[in-house]
Write a structure and sequence with these properties.
It is a single chain. With about 240 residues, the chain is an alpha+beta fold. The protein has 6 helices and 8 strands. It has helices spanning about 30-40, 135-145, 155-180, 185-205, 210-220, 225-235; strands spanning about 10-15, 20-25, 40-45, 50-55, 60-70, 75-80, 100, 110. The strands form 3 sheets. It has a 4-stranded mixed sheet with strand order 2-1-6-5, with helices on one face. The chain has a two-stranded antiparallel ribbon with strand order 3-4. Strands 7-8 form a two-stranded antiparallel ribbon. Strand 3 and strand 4 (about 50-55) form a beta hairpin. The radius of gyration is 21 Å and the shape is elongated.
C-alpha cells in the first residue's frame, strides 16, 4: 500500500449489496489496520488530525465486507454494509446533490434525481432504468427505520406495524389490478411502482433484504411454474 507525503490514501466506501458509493474519506496505515482487524471502517480525519471509527458517536457503523486496492495500490475501496445513514446529514449516501446525466448521444437534457413517495431523494439513483434502484430505495427505507425521530411516510408505515403495512400493500395491489384491467400504461407503471415500494417497506419491517427475494427468483429461474408450485404443494 502506497500513501502520499502526509501518510494518507483516499478510501471510497461502496454499499456491499447495491454498489452505491456512500462516502469518500482518507485512511493512514493505522486506520487501514484497524479496519481489517475489527471489521468496521476506520478513517483518518484531516481536519482533526486524528483516527476515527465511522459511527463511533452516531452508531451508524460501516461493517466491512471486503477491502480492495486499486491497480497502483494508492487508493482503497471499502465494500461495507451500513448500519444506518452514512452521511452526517442523515442521507444514506454523501453523494446526493445534483442529478443524473444520460449519454450525450441520446440528445436529452439532464434529469433530476428521482424522489421517494415521502418526497426525499433516492440518493445516487438513476432515472429508473436500473434494477438496482430497488436495493437503493431499500437502503433509504432502512435509514428511515434506523431514525424513528425523523418524520417521513416510511416512518409512518413502519410505526403502523405489520397489519397496517399489509393492508396498504393490499390496497396498492388492488389499484394496480384495476389499472391493468382498464387504465393507461402510464397508470399501470405508476401503480406497479407503488406496489414495489410498499413491498420493500414490508420487507424492511421484517428485516428481509431484497437480495433474498432475488436469490429465490434466481433459484426458480428455468423451472416450470407448474412444477415449482407442485413442489411447494408436496413440501407442505
Amino acid at each position: 500500500m502506497t500513501f502520499d507525503e502526509k501518510g494518507l490514501a483516499p478510501a471510497v466506501v461502496q454499499h456491499a449489496r447495491t454498489g452505491e458509493v456512500l462516502m469518500l474519506a482518507f485512511v493512514n496505515a493505522e486506520a487501514l489496520r484497524l479496519t481489517l482487524e475489527t471489521g468496521e471502517a476506520h478513517f483518518f480525519s484531516r481536519s482533526r488530525g486524528a483516527l476515527w471509527r465511522k459511527g463511533e458517536t452516531s452508531g451508524n457503523v460501516l461493517r466491512v465486507v471486503e477491502v480492495r486496492l486499486d491497480c497502483d495500490e494508492d487508493a482503497v475501496l471499502v465494500r461495507a454494509e451500513p448500519a444506518g445513514p452514512t452521511c452526517h446529514t442523515g442521507k444514506p449516501s454523501c453523494f446526493f446533490q445534483g442529478g443524473t446525466f444520460p449519454s450525450p448521444l441520446a440528445g436529452q437534457s439532464p434529469t433530476s434525481l428521482p424522489r421517494l413517495p415521502d418526497g426525499s431523494e433516492a440518493a445516487g439513483a438513476p432515472d429508473g432504468a436500473d434494477a438496482a434502484i430497488l436495493e437503493r430505495v431499500f437502503a433509504v427505507i432502512e435509514a428511515r427505520k434506523a431514525d424513528p425521530a425523523r418524520r417521513s411516510y416510511v416512518r409512518t408505515l413502519l410505526d403502523g406495524g405489520a397489519g397496517a403495512i399489509g393492508a396498504k400493500l393490499c390496497e396498492e395491489a388492488g389499484e394496480l389490478s384495476r389499472a391493468i384491467a382498464a387504465e393507461s400504461d402510464e397508470r399501470v407503471v405508476a401503480e406497479a411502482a407503488d406496489v414495489l415500494f410498499h413491498l420493500l417497506v414490508a420487507l424492511g419491517a421484517r428485516d428481509v433484504a431484497p437480495s433474498r427475494v432475488f436469490a429465490e427468483l434466481s433459484r426458480r429461474f428455468g423451472v416450470s411454474g407448474l412444477d415449482e408450485k407442485a413442489s411447494r404443494g408436496s413440501a407442505k
